[in-house]
Write a structure and sequence with these properties.
Blueprint (H helix, E strand, L loop, with lengths): L5 E5 L2 E5 L8 E11 L10 E4 L5 H12 L6 H9 L5 E5 L3 E10 L3 E9 L8 H15 L3 E7 L3 H9 L3 E11 L9 E4 L1
Helix pairs in contact: 1-2
Length: 190
């Protein structure tokens, strides 16, 4: 494929490679990479608030992790929720409804992740309003907003497209024994 590049992370080093390889004992997960320069404003009742110090933040993080089949320890969840400048924000509408995080800020881009809504609060536009508010904040800081969505999740993909995000490529995540973001993880970006 022309002009294709792949980012590979393996054993704590990063390598750009020009081909996707078959990897024994690995499974592949594919994400759509979206970028946004001009977010669509999405309103819902309520407001965005920082998550730090809010008791609902660890609960939302734990529920989100469980929904993804992840099992972080209570200590790991608490550490992220209480970490200063953790990038976590909540949508509050007479009570906390959703969570999202500005997980990475670079020279030109910032990435939103950890988007989750309490199951009983879904369908009311809270996640859309929160992602929209975070994207406005990021663009207001002069950066381009990015998000990743599992290519098999039509709800997430539809949400980001409706908020003014455009598809900019794919990210291929190779997992070994179900483990990602460690020495067993290999990433390719096209």
């Amino acid at each position: 494929m022309k002009n294709e590049k792949h980012l590979t992370k393996f054993d704590e080093s990063t390598v750009i490679s020009s081909e996707v390889k078959e990897l024994p004992d690995h499974t592949l997960k594919t994400y759509n990479l979206y970028v946004c320069n001009k977010p669509e404003k999405r309103g819902a009742s309520g407001r965005m608030i920082p998550a730090q110090g809010r008791p609902e933040a660890p609960l939302l993080l734990a529920q989100m992790a469980a929904s993804l089949g992840l099992e972080p320890s209570e200590k790991e969840i608490k550490a992220l929720a209480e970490k200063e400048n953790n990038g976590l924000y909540l949508w509050d509408d007479g009570g906390v409804c959703a969570i999202a995080r500005i997980a990475f800020i670079g020279e030109r881009y910032a990435r939103i992740n950890t988007v989750y809504t309490f199951p009983e609060k879904r369908g009311r536009g809270y996640a859309a309003a929160l992602v929209s508010a975070l994207a406005e904040k990021i663009v207001g800081d002069g950066l381009i907003t990015t998000v990743l969505a599992d290519e098999n999740n039509p709800v997430s993909n539809g949400l980001y497209l409706s908020l003014g995000f455009a598809t900019d490529g794919k990210i291929y995540e190779y997992l070994k024994n179900g483990v990602a973001h460690s020495e067993n993880a290999i990433f390719y970006i096209r």
